Amino acid sequence: MEFNIYDFTSFTKWIDESLNAAMSPFWVMITEMAIIGVAILAFYALVGLFLVYAERKVCAFMQNRVGPNRVGPFGIFQTIADLLKLLMKELVYIKNADKLLFNIAPFIVITASFLAIAAIPFARGLHAIDFNIGIFYVVAVSSLGVIGILLAGWSSNSKYSLIGAMRSGAQIVSYELSVGLSLITMVVLAGSMQLSTIVEAQANGWFIFTGHVPAVIAFVIFLIASTAETNRGPFDLAEAESELTAGFHTEYSGIRFAFFFLAEYMNMFIVASIAATVFWGGWMPFHVPGWEGFNTVMDYIPPFIWYIGKTAVIIFILMLFKWTFPRLRIDQLLTLEWKYLLPINLFNVVLMAFIVLMGWHW
Amino acid sequence: MRGLINYFSGMFNGIISLLKGMGVTGKYFFTSPVTIVTQQYPENRKTLEMFDAFKGEVTMPHDENNEHKCTACSICQINCPNGSIEIVSRDVVNDEGKKRKELDKHLYNIGMCSFCGLCIKTCPSNALAWGQEFEHSMFTRDKFVKTLNNEGSKLMQKKGVE
Question: Is the ipTM of this complex over 0.85?
Answer without folding.
Answer: no
